[in-house]
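## tool: complex_structure
## caller: assistant
## args:
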Amino acid sequence: MCGVFGIFGHEEASNLTYLGLHALQHRGQESAGIVSSNGQALNLFRDMGLVADVFTAEVISKLEGKSAIGHVRYSTAGVSKLKNAQPFMVTYAGGQLAVAHNGNLVNSDALRRSLEQSGAIFQSDSDTEAIIHLIARSKRSTLEERVVEALSQVQGAYSLLFLSEKKLIGVRDPFGFRPLVLGKAKSGYVLASETTALDLIEGELVREIDPGEMVVIDEDGVHTSRPFAAVRKGRCIFEQVYFARSDSTLFGLSVYETRKKLGIQLAKEQPAEADLVIAVPDSGVAAAIGYAQQSGIPYDVGLIRSHYVGRTFIEPQQSIRHFGVKLKLSAVRATLKGKRVVVVDDSIVRGTTSRKIVKMLKAAGAIEVHLRISSPPITWPCYYGIDTPSRKELIASSHSIEEIATYVTADSLAYLSQEGLGTAVNDPSAATFCTACFSGQYLTPLAVAPQ
Amino acid sequence: MCGVFGIFGHEEASNLTYLGLHALQHRGQESAGIVSSNGQALNLFRDMGLVADVFTAEVISKLEGKSAIGHVRYSTAGVSKLKNAQPFMVTYAGGQLAVAHNGNLVNSDALRRSLEQSGAIFQSDSDTEAIIHLIARSKRSTLEERVVEALSQVQGAYSLLFLSEKKLIGVRDPFGFRPLVLGKAKSGYVLASETTALDLIEGELVREIDPGEMVVIDEDGVHTSRPFAAVRKGRCIFEQVYFARSDSTLFGLSVYETRKKLGIQLAKEQPAEADLVIAVPDSGVAAAIGYAQQSGIPYDVGLIRSHYVGRTFIEPQQSIRHFGVKLKLSAVRATLKGKRVVVVDDSIVRGTTSRKIVKMLKAAGAIEVHLRISSPPITWPCYYGIDTPSRKELIASSHSIEEIATYVTADSLAYLSQEGLGTAVNDPSAATFCTACFSGQYLTPLAVAPQ
Amino acid sequence: MCGVFGIFGHEEASNLTYLGLHALQHRGQESAGIVSSNGQALNLFRDMGLVADVFTAEVISKLEGKSAIGHVRYSTAGVSKLKNAQPFMVTYAGGQLAVAHNGNLVNSDALRRSLEQSGAIFQSDSDTEAIIHLIARSKRSTLEERVVEALSQVQGAYSLLFLSEKKLIGVRDPFGFRPLVLGKAKSGYVLASETTALDLIEGELVREIDPGEMVVIDEDGVHTSRPFAAVRKGRCIFEQVYFARSDSTLFGLSVYETRKKLGIQLAKEQPAEADLVIAVPDSGVAAAIGYAQQSGIPYDVGLIRSHYVGRTFIEPQQSIRHFGVKLKLSAVRATLKGKRVVVVDDSIVRGTTSRKIVKMLKAAGAIEVHLRISSPPITWPCYYGIDTPSRKELIASSHSIEEIATYVTADSLAYLSQEGLGTAVNDPSAATFCTACFSGQYLTPLAVAPQ
Amino acid sequence: MCGVFGIFGHEEASNLTYLGLHALQHRGQESAGIVSSNGQALNLFRDMGLVADVFTAEVISKLEGKSAIGHVRYSTAGVSKLKNAQPFMVTYAGGQLAVAHNGNLVNSDALRRSLEQSGAIFQSDSDTEAIIHLIARSKRSTLEERVVEALSQVQGAYSLLFLSEKKLIGVRDPFGFRPLVLGKAKSGYVLASETTALDLIEGELVREIDPGEMVVIDEDGVHTSRPFAAVRKGRCIFEQVYFARSDSTLFGLSVYETRKKLGIQLAKEQPAEADLVIAVPDSGVAAAIGYAQQSGIPYDVGLIRSHYVGRTFIEPQQSIRHFGVKLKLSAVRATLKGKRVVVVDDSIVRGTTSRKIVKMLKAAGAIEVHLRISSPPITWPCYYGIDTPSRKELIASSHSIEEIATYVTADSLAYLSQEGLGTAVNDPSAATFCTACFSGQYLTPLAVAPQ
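## result:
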């Protein structure tokens, strides 16, 4: 779970990258970094924390030049330290190079082992470092050729930005797991994980980068090529369901509209007798509105999300325990009291949060709670960049829907079907999406069997 | 704009105060402080910043004892410095005393002048310090008597908490401008600005403190008295409209429900031909849902609020200006495109934010924007604790509704009537509320004519 | 233990105050603060820490105006918190007032009790706050008259700076316990604890402020008066022996020269058979050089002081304990090996440090260690501003010199006599100095008998 | 200019490393870092700043295990950023490896170019990273063999510590430019740049590591080998003259004693008619005492060094300029007034500091200032790890002694001869030292001609 942003040919490159990263902050809150190029040399700053905390005006002013790339990160590997913060910046035979990566490789252990055998050293735990080694070891003469040669040895999910002294390069893997769009901001070209970053800097969307496509942006403009034949589109369905910001257009679809359609479809498949429909904010709101519209049951606000949730809270030792959800969400008694409630959420992972939410709703007076999930049960871990736990921890891997309903103390529980999901994204068989987390049908070979 | 929280007789007094302040964070984001009592002596910690940033586990552990009071502050006086952060803590003839104040006095300048003439020194710009002087100068023997004598010389808005080595005292001014509730958390009694703080710490609401009431909590329990005869209730209507958190119960009314009724009433009074109703999040959501329900026009999400809005952002120098609203709100194109939109907000102050919102909606494709405000035009400044600007800056003080509509570039603009407002709060003539910001009818004499 | 610095009529008032405080940093390392006046209003900044850490260029730039006072503090009261950091700044009937205090009052408890009885509140633990109350309560019309009236009720040690919008005032108590000098820096007048602060800012010494004298500096220049008749001079002998910086001229005496004379006198009184003389750096260096010159025994460096001693060190848990002195001082084996050493220090307080030093010297190879102290035994606590412990902790209060020698494991131990001390400061009977710490003859009544 | 410390087999490895680095703080103040091993895995923490500021008790507690290495750094390359802070820590085919380096390679550019040609990436500007690449690329099976193979390709100055999961390795280059000693602390073995680090942790010196020697410390004890034949000893003379701490024993010589001998020799070669001898503290003190003893002119303190010099000071804009030296040193008027003064310093680099010191002494009343330097003129830059500027900036490269005397405004100026220097270190022809900075006779080939 990461976000990337790059810009080429704009007087305020690092400042716009900073704003672009802020717009992508939902994709990663653990570290943030920017590398800029002044045409001669690269400069890097990165640190743990939110974009607004990591960068000061003084730091931004030192990230000089007309091109830049940036990264926000939420560790996919569980280890989260400064050494893993991106962008990475190195020197190699071709000069300086910075890289920002969204996604996750599936053959990184093998790559790493092989690179180490031939003398490579690794300073991070990140699979991205293997890509840099492959580029540096390529015997090709141009950066573009080196990138292509390197990525041809790599399997898995990647939307990658590279910055050299003179060029900005964007590449998307042949399956197109992670999003990447091309935009324009005045004289400059932009590459970003989501369109919301373009909106914030008042840029315009040009188009989505295709799966398997590489774009090279330099003084002469944008050059495109398709070095990696796309076997089949494998766009991450979970970006639509939960991860992307709902004002983005992703894979050509409005995320908000998609989520609303998920709710409409869910209402068709899994109706409920109830007095009102509420959402688990914020990602469940669109689906809840769709559910309400389709079902005719009024939509209302039953849960409020705090704007001030810090990441470290000092918990009481004795009187109150397991505070997490309460700090983030609170129930609206006036809405809930004496009501039969449909509550719409996007997914259930371990079930613990859903359990707390249902209990909170009942404590606030709801007499029935019908939990509706706007996607199928998550039964398989993601190896392509979404931070899901192992099967053992995924409640739906080992429990029936009835068992889950009992655990979360809901009066009823129902999920959207896989067909319903496909219908909502205009691809009934979901042939252009990766749905491995629901189906277990991974699009690439995996290094080890999923656990 | 401040929030107060106090607790007496609980093993984890300072920790619960910390959590209570977090729940009241929307009432003030500039500074936070806690004073605890271990029965012998008081301990204070306060600093600039959010509750979660000001307090560490180490600091909380040093705030020992079974009683505590806390405060979050947004400067009502424009000057915002550490010296004005509350609680204040002093020693005086009666021992140690801490105070936390929500509200604003209208005779503080006169009091201050008079106190200074008789030799008092002031270390802050806050009107609260005058109250402490009056208490210290009282010849009465008990703290309760001193507090009553002091407050009898004071005019204006106050919900006050006092903490001594042995007692927690809460007082609300005779008009009851600012809220204050009594709750219970296990063995301990709680006083808080809003019920949402009770919910977070899993306490229960006992009742609202009455206008003019004083409660004294000590080892023997809760003692109540009504030393200040309430002339007339003057509960701040703006707490209901905008300021309080919507999951709170305030003045006996569910804030969420009130806001929804405001929307319903607004739809009755000010209908619009449109395809959908959207809210300016978060305070406009309840009213927008009410408007949608009453009008039959579908409710949808047209604006999304960022979770990561820091207070200081590094703005681009050349390419983009006037960024503020865009960092906080973004428009959902899929919802808005080609649509006639009713957008519901709670109020218009200067008009600049509304103008940016309307422009943002049109840039995202809305073909008509009908702005509906769920309260009457704000034409007078508040002297009772809400931070509104002078009449010169209040756009409705000097412009007609048509002129405002033109300025904000809305296709139509309409406000809720004062009668409609009264109806929504079950008090058609608003005889138990202060509506001075709408009507100019101030409930107390003012030191100077409103400007 | 504190230092004060003030300047009036200089374009860079706050910057020079910052530098002056840096020069006085040895007088207090716990907190630092500056108040400046732009002629209309005062501005304050203070925080815990060293001068160089507390102030940034941005903070200094906000402390605008042509006059300023500053303060460095080492708590005399044992409690050390931000609320006690000086300068204090208040508003009162006469306008704004800031105060910086070096010294300690002996009737502060009584003053405080009396002020509290008449309604005063205290926000700090500092005795300085009582002085401000007395000024504010004075019925006199000018600040000068108020200050005189206030200080006439006060007993003890004070070198005080007051800053109002238009004036800088300096006052020294009738005994002249603590130093205070008047200087000039270009167009501006300076008041400072020591001449070293003048040297750093390239100012010149005008003269010492007399005991009992008040100087008022305003647009018309320097006005002097002597409102407090000096009964008898009581200049702190310990400033000369240990506390002041050795490059300062204090009470008309070069501190360095005085300390050297102490060493000369000590050699006369307490010779030793030895191979070399070393100092406990830095305060013992001048006396050691004097001792060496007089005795003819070569001076050498046997102990080195670290430049990087932070105040909080993480000590090993098991293998090494009682680290303090080793982090600050290290022994030079080459100098010490096989030698009989005279080690000169300025004083012994508890004896624990001396014991560690002697052991360190012997571990480094010294075969005999003769400890010579360049002042008489400290047997009484100071109530005038030096932070000495109670009699119980002062080793010389309850132990003979032989017992102390045994405790510190020295082969011999000898102190300078009181007569020798007087001789070194050109006042054989020490009639113009306070020597209470050596003699127990306090110059003022004390609130309680010394313990 | 760097310091290294390592320990193997001690329960408090990271805590003792922290203390050891504190003792070596004079060797580098810009960054500090520690890597520990718990036998299974390495842990790293490093940051910009002083040892006491970089490490907290929490950080130390996370650096678990019985072995550790640490590093303090002052950039030799001019670029100083976190990425260059050491130790470096990597994974490679052999597992995990950390390295800490004191010294400077002379063929690092060529090595880097060659490594980059074969595909290596560099994440720092440090020459140390090249060594790690060479180790990782070695086909040898053990770490020891890899280290030897790697270092056989390297030219220049290095005292290196390596830490793997199971071993601590120390190596010194064949010339022995930089110091490295072996010590013992209870059950553990220690490697450190200087003996002062051993003294602080109450360890004992075992012996100096020989030029060209490698020691490997593991569970079985200390294993030594001499893989690199020492052509000729080239111990850095400047460590003795200036860089090392004077309480250390370095290259078998007491640094303090050496410096004193330099002063004695200087007095023989370059007498002066004067009333007293003073030092530029702290590094000039030993030589000044030697000069005084030899010449019979009394030693005294004429300059005092501040304990509170921070690295960033806010300078006045108008009234005072060129502040640097004044913040660090102040003159003692009482000592200097009317005196003819010999002032002893260890070296002159650019001449600007000496000029300020001479002016300061005269401003304090000295009537003659005779500057004596306890080493020959520095005329060539160091490529072996001391941060000297280019020839253009070295005043003695382009000016005669008379010209320098005129520039620094001294009444006379004289340097120690090269022969005198050799005599003081018991090696009259300096055949076992590197004196390139004085002679231009570099012991290794250089990549480019010295400039």
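## assistant note: The domain at 257-439 of chain C is CATH 3.40.50.2020 (Rossmann fold). The first strand of chain C starts at residue 2 and ends at 8. Handing back to user.
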